[in-house]
């Protein structure tokens, strides 16, 4: 027999909610008011039967209308005010003011502050008028205390409204940030491979049009690269969608992006006609998942932009492991003044590649710069802090180690 780790959690009483909660509140207020008003109906003052017949329905309606307080807070507030005022004008006592306080709190808690202030003003003005006209039961001190209580109720309702509004705003911002993160991830995952497919297909088409008889072998190689890139893009798309759906799988369809897959990026860039050289400086150290993924995505997007826009032939990818941060540099020998589309000029642009890379770096407390190199070409440089959760070790001497084109550092 299976053991239930928390049986009492499901068996515990559940508080009413929605319309059931409104009905329960109206019933509770009515019960308290009726019990507190019994003595008033049995009072020493002689009252006609008509007055008694009118007082009981006023009392019941003042509490019963609270059932509609959340759907029509302002209307309920004014209704309770009129019924309560009429009840007390018949010289009945009792805690019927509780119904008015509940209605007033609801008006303020739903953000109708003008209506709440108007209700308080009418109550204070009416009670003050009765006091001035010589009522023995309402002194100036009583009016002052009543005003303070009503203002406190409105203040509590407004605090409730502000807290709920803040919670909704935080939730909305979190949802927006999550959508942006997903959009950035899909852009980085799919955009890289689609861009390479576009470049390779365009090159094959150009060769076929230029010299159909001698371009067969080169076109076949380009089409094979297109096939490989599309296969990887489809695999990574499925893996990303699987994570978004939180699918229960024995293993992901594709490994998580990281610098361990840098060699794959290099090979893909080489198939697009680029000569890629990788360099590693400093003592390598284990990276957190966030830092590893950010460095990988910055390199991926930079290589994508080089293949699409830079008209370059050679690219250098450099990783520098410092004391506190990782420096990722991607340099090319292309046209630095018009390269990279959305990342190739210092002027503002509407592209999402550079913006996405900068967002990744800034999210981890780093920074990213991109622009033409003084000697020609274009460079992207991202500095990403390791963070306190990364177990580091002292860096060795800064001796560059170069790998051949296509070799992983």
Distance between the termini: 55 Å
Number of strands: 6
Secondary-structure element order, N to C: HHHHHHHHHEHEEHEEE
Low-confidence stretches: 1-10, 247-255, 337-351, 389-409
Note the overall shape: elongated
Architecture of the domain at 261-390 and 399-409, CATH level 2? 2-Layer Sandwich
> How big a fraction of the residues is strand?
5-15%
Provide a quick synopsis of the model.
The protein has 11 helices and 6 strands.
Describe this protein's structure.
With 409 residues, the chain is an alpha+beta fold. Among the domains are: 17-138; 261-390 and 399-409, Heat Shock Protein 90, CATH 3.30.565. Helices cover 58% and strands 10% of the residues. It has a 6-stranded mixed β-sheet with strand order 4-5-3-2-1-6. Strand 4 and strand 5 (378-385) form a beta hairpin. Helix 10 (289-310) runs antiparallel to helix 11 (353-363). The radius of gyration is 36 Å and the shape is elongated. It starts with 6 loop residues before the first helix and ends in a 6-residue tail after the last strand. The model is unreliable at 1-10, 247-255, 337-351 and 389-409 (pLDDT under 50).
